[in-house]
Structure formats: C-alpha cells, structure tokens
Write a structure and sequence with these properties.
The chain is of the alpha/beta class and about 260 residues long. It is built from seven helices and nine strands. A seven-stranded parallel sheet has the order 1-2-3-4-5-6-7. The two termini are about 15 Å apart. The mean pLDDT is about 95. It binds zinc ion (ZN) (2 copies) and fe (iii) ion (2 copies).
C-alpha cells in the first residue's frame, strides 16, 4: 500500500485523484491512501495547500472514487502541518469528515519553511545542530498532541543533506521514547530518495532504533505525480526488514491492523 499521495488540490502536485488510483492499480498495489495537504490556517498559499473551502470537495472526491472503484482499497487521509497554537481549531475542522487516518508533519520551524527550496538560503546562516533540535522538539510535540495516527517523513530535516557534525543519537532516542508512548505510527517514506539527501526517511540507524522501541510503521511515497506512486517500495521493504521490521500497519476508519512484510 501507499499511504501518502498528493493531488492537484494542493497546487504543487500533478494529476487528479483518478490518475493516482490508476497508477496504483498499474503498480499492483492493494491500497492507496490520499494524504493531501490540509489548508494552512494562518496563510493562504495556493501553491502549498488546498483552500479551506476545497476540503469538502477533496473528501467527496476520494469517497466517490472509493464507491466507483472495485479493484483497490481507497483510503481517506490528510497531511496536517503541526502548528502548536492551531491544533484545537484544526481538530474541530477535521471532525466533520470520515478520515481513515490523520498524518502529522513538521514543515515549518517557527515560520521558516525549512523543506521548501525557496528558503534554502536560510541554512547558510543557521546552526545546523539547533535546526535539528528545533525540528525534533516540534516533532515530539506533534506526537504528544494526540491528534495524529501517523507521523510523516520522521527526519525530514535532513532533506537537503545538512546533518549535524555528530550523529544525533540522543535526539533519535528521545524521539523514539515519545513515539513509543504516543502510539503514533511512523511513516517510512521513499520521497527522500528523490531529494538531495538521496535516502529514505527515516535513516537506517534511526529506523533500527524505532524498531528497538517497537514503534510501528507504515509506508508512503509522498507522490506529487502519479508516476511516483509506490516509488522504490522494493528498497523500502528491504530497509524495513534489515531494521528488524516484520510487519507494517494498515488503517481503516482510524483503526489499525498489521500486515506481514513480504520477504
Ligand atoms: Zn506537497
Ligand atoms: Fe510533508
Ligand atoms: Fe506529503
Ligand atoms: Zn510530505
């Protein structure tokens, strides 16, 4: 299954809902989970997310497609940016819809879109260790918020290949403890393979530790084009097994079940 695909609703992805379903069928996937960007409440940017008034249309589109399509399971998810002060309002807006899972993500550090190539320059005058610390602080807050079933691309902060001088083992460990206690499922995302860092989120040492803390995982491509659906999942499954995982989590109506990883 691929639990993280976008659509043209977000303004920076190509392809409509049905194009992604077709791509998933061609890849032989058994499930596809739409996980487009939830509206940013404090700023309207049609190149980043759908507008609030588009949310009902996104939901209806996915649900209609589910009714029309027999050969594949279609899930309704959404990728929500974590902003500490907005989560009550967001929870209220999400309540109205029958999501199968809610995916949390951190794409902003105190207003800086650190994974946005438009603001890449900021890295030049930032202390990378502090950037990593702030990212993981917010990520842990997101886990503790209780709003999310899944946490997307757990070490997104490595996207452009800026790593702290020493492996951030302490940050990983602290995060793993919070992840275990929160019950939030971690997303293994192949999107990093298509980015400057050139590796899956999370990194292997991080994933090994998550497994040691018995944190469950799910799988996503973060496709922004139908051709990216299920991208490099063979690599992801190899990595998962190497890290000690034998099963991944599937969702339905916010309930989970475990599926064995094929060897
Ligand atoms: Zn996106
Ligand atoms: Fe994301
Ligand atoms: Fe995404
Ligand atoms: Zn994403």
């Amino acid at each position: 299954m691929d639990y993280h695909v976008h659509t043209a609703f977000c303004g920076h992805a190509g392809g409509m809902l049905e194009d992604y379903v077709r791509a998933a069928l061609e890849k032989g996937l058994s499930e596809i989970g739409f996980c487009d960007h939830f509206p940013l409440l404090h700023m309207r940017d049609p190149s980043l997310t759908m507008a609030p008034e588009e949310l009902p249309r996104y939901v209806e589109g996915v649900l209609r497609l589910r009714e029309e399509t027999g050969d594949i399971k279609i899930l309704l998810g959404i990728e929500v940016d974590f902003f500490p002060s907005q989560m009550d309002e967001v929870a209220g807006l999400l309540e109205a819809y029958p999501f199968d899972y809610l995916t949390g993500a951190v794409h902003f550090l105190d207003g800086w879109g650190f994974d946005d190539p438009r603001y890449l320059e900021e890295y030049r005058w930032k202390d990378i260790s502090l950037v990593w610390e702030r990212y993981f602080q917010l990520a842990m807050e997101a886990l503790k918020s209780g709003l999310f079933d899944v946490f997307a691309h757990p070490d997104l902060v490595k996207k452009f290949g800026f790593f702290p001088p020493d492996p951030p083992i302490d940050l990983y460990r602290e995060f793993c403890e919070v992840a275990r206690d929160s019950g939030v499922v971690m997303e293994v995302s192949t999107a990093g393979l298509r980015k400057p860092v050139g590796e899956i989120y999370p990194s292997e040492d991080f994933l090994v530790m998550l497994n040691r803390f018995q944190v469950p995982v799910t799988l996503g491509s973060d496709a922004h084009h139908p051709s990216e659906v299920g991208h490099a999942f063979d690599q992801a499954l190899v990595l998962l097994r190497r890290a000690g995982y034998r099963e991944i989590v599937a969702f339905e109506g916010r309930d989970r079940r475990s599926i064995p990883i094929p060897s």
